[in-house]
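Q: Please design a sequence for this.
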């Protein structure tokens, strides 16, 4: 059917604006380094937990620090899960708010794809997990949300290792999908993994949160003012029974994105992002991975015992098959029921490679596993093995496809974007009228 005069066919994975592409490139470099640190921390934890010195690892994880009078005498592993991951979710909240307020995704036609892909990539894995565990009995079904997460740091580390020339729009898609995924995960944690709720501390948390929001709306940046308010908000959310990482997202959503007066330079949300992203990617997430990934294969009943547990099988198949089917299927449905088509030069193999890469759950999957079954339980150990194997298998399959497409990526990405004028902006980004 002919396209009506004056209309344009929207393209999936079309180029964004040059400032957005450059900003995303900076984010991806930070997250790639963080992913490599995350990988190193996980390998170290696994090696230590399965060595003759494994008792030392457990003693370190269980060591309690913090003021007992405030009920914050938590183990180091709990501080990593509840405290450090709040920084991770704070950065994710800033990124998501900025994308939808000032980024390319403020345009509905650009936002629909990553949002739909994130929803598909969470729904299908959850259904697969439930199918594996419907008759398992016990608490098996409580882990339904484990395979729904995507670990952006790990996924980008894989991209860095295989050295693809992935088009900027597809990298942006992967980043945005993971950020939306993280937000949906924190909603799931808050609703489904809150065992007991205490309303008084939760209502009390609104006071420092409101003061924090009022100050940042007035563009206050002083850490010695904002950090205590953030800490009090976190402590009260923790005391309420809601997982404390929710406080990170709540704080992020109060930060303004746009500058008060138009002009060059980042807004406050982007300023905080630059400040806290290295701390999140380089410290918070790797430290959490170190304490969360140290499962003893022998202690879990052996690798064979884990692979016969429907929980581990549901996690593995959910991450590898469910994520791929969910993300790929949602992308296909978007183009099927809209006028959108893949951008020129791209193929559905590219989408499949990204969909498989989204199956690297790791950080949030490990967190949900602990919340579902309790840290240190046998099923939590089986969950960890499932997450590790599922993420590894998804990474290998994605690497095979993306490696095969490497020359194609190089042709459509580097050749088109190498022509740059004296203004430093690639020519392909200067003609905004030709973008789908």
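A: Design:
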């Amino acid at each position: 059917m002919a396209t009506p005069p004056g209309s344009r066919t929207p393209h999936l994975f079309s180029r964004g604006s040059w400032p957005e592409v450059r900003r995303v490139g900076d984010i991806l470099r930070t997250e790639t380094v963080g992913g490599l640190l995350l990988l190193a921390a996980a390998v170290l934890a696994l090696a230590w937990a399965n060595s003759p010195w494994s008792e030392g690892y457990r003693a370190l994880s269980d060591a309690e620090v913090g003021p007992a009078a405030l009920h914050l005498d938590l183990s180091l592993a709990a501080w990593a899960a509840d405290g450090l991951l709040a920084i991770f979710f704070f950065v994710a909240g800033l990124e998501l708010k900025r994308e939808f307020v000032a980024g390319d995704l403020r345009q509905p036609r650009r936002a629909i794809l990553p949002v739909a892909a994130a929803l598909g990539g969470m729904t299908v894995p959850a259904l697969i997990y439930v199918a594996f565990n419907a008759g398992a009995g016990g608490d098996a079904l409580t882990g339904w949300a484990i395979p729904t997460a995507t670990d952006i740091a790990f996924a980008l580390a894989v991209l860095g290792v295989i050295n693809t020339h992935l088009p900027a729009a597809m990298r942006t898609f992967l980043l945005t999908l993971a950020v939306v995924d993280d937000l949906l995960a924190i909603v799931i944690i808050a609703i489904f993994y809150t065992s007991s709720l205490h309303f008084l501390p939760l209502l009390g948390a609104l006071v420092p949160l409101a003061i924090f929001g009022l100050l940042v709306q007035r563009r206050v940046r002083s850490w010695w003012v904002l950090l205590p308010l953030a800490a009090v908000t976190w402590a009260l959310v923790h005391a309420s029974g809601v997982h404390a990482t929710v406080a990170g997202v709540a704080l992020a959503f109060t930060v303004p994105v746009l500058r008060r007066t138009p002009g060059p330079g980042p807004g406050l949300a982007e300023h905080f992002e630059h400040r806290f992203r290295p701390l999140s990617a380089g410290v918070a997430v790797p430290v959490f991975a170190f304490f969360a990934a140290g499962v003893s294969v022998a202690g879990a009943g052996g690798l064979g015992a884990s692979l016969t547990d429907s929980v581990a099988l549901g996690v593995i198949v959910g991450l590898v098959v469910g994520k791929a089917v969910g993300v790929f299927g949602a992308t296909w449905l978007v183009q099927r029921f809209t006028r959108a088509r893949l951008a020129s030069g791209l193929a559905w193999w590219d989408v499949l490679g990204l969909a498989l890469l989204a199956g690297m759950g790791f950080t949030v999957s490990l967190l949900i596993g602990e919340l579902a079954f309790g840290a240190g339980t046998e099923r939590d150990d089986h969950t960890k093995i499932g997450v590790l194997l599922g993420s590894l298998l998804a990474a290998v399959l994605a690497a095979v496809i993306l490696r095969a497409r490497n020359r194609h990526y190089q042709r459509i990405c580097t050749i088109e974007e190498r022509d740059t004028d004296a203004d430093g902006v690639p020519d392909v980004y200067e003609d905004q009228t030709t973008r789908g």
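Q: Thanks. Anything notable?
A: The chain has one domain: 26-193+243-420. The first helix runs from residue 18 to 49.
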